[in-house]
Design a protein that fits this description.
This protein is an alpha+beta fold and 163 residues long. Strand 2 and strand 3 form a beta hairpin. The protein folds into three domains: 33 residues; 40 residues; 81 residues. It contains three helices and four strands.
Length: 163
């Protein structure tokens, strides 16, 4: 003969309370494990110290970033003023006379802004002469020869390519 289990409402409440207690106990154990793993076995005070140390490190990193940005701006400004375009044009100043060779030259040294100098030499059999002319914004207040203009133009083109 099969008998049915009958429970009173008190017993059912007791079982339900036991199951809820067991679930809460397991949940508490799980949370304890997570907290131990988070704190690596340290207490809450050392965890606060760790968080404060990380925050200080982030603030140091932010200050360092500002310093690096200022430095890079100054480097960029100095770089813009430095020589970036160089071009040399060789020529023979005595073409019609049938003497000499392409031993004379004009070389332009220019910054990104077009400031710099053009240096020219004239090579003759008995002497060699050097000349230099200042360049501002890719032009000069002094008269430029065709070779000097060509050297400036080539240097200007090389600066454009680098940008």
């Amino acid at each position: 003969m099969i008998t049915a289990l009958s429970t009173t409402p008190f017993e059912a409440g007791f079982y339900a309370l036991g199951i809820v207690s067991l679930v809460l106990l397991l949940w508490n154990i799980r949370l304890e494990r997570k907290m131990r793993r988070l704190t690596c076995g340290k207490n809450a005070k050392s965890l606060e110290d760790t968080i404060a140390f990380i925050k200080e490190g982030c603030e140091d990193l932010a200050r360092f970033r500002v310093d690096v940005e200022k430095y890079l701006k100054s480097v960029e400004e100095r770089l813009r003023r430095s020589v970036q375009g160089i071009a040399t044009v060789r020529f023979n100043p005595f073409k019609g006379a049938g003497v000499g060779g392409n031993q004379s030259f004009s070389t332009a040294f220019l910054s990104e802004d077009g400031n710099g100098v053009v240096v020219s030499t004239l090579h003759a059999r008995d002497r060699m002469s050097f000349y230099s002319k200042p360049i501002e914004h890719f032009s000069s207040s002094h008269e430029l020869s065709d070779e000097e203009k060509a050297a400036i133009l080539q240097a200007r083109e090389s600066v454009k390519v680098k940008r």
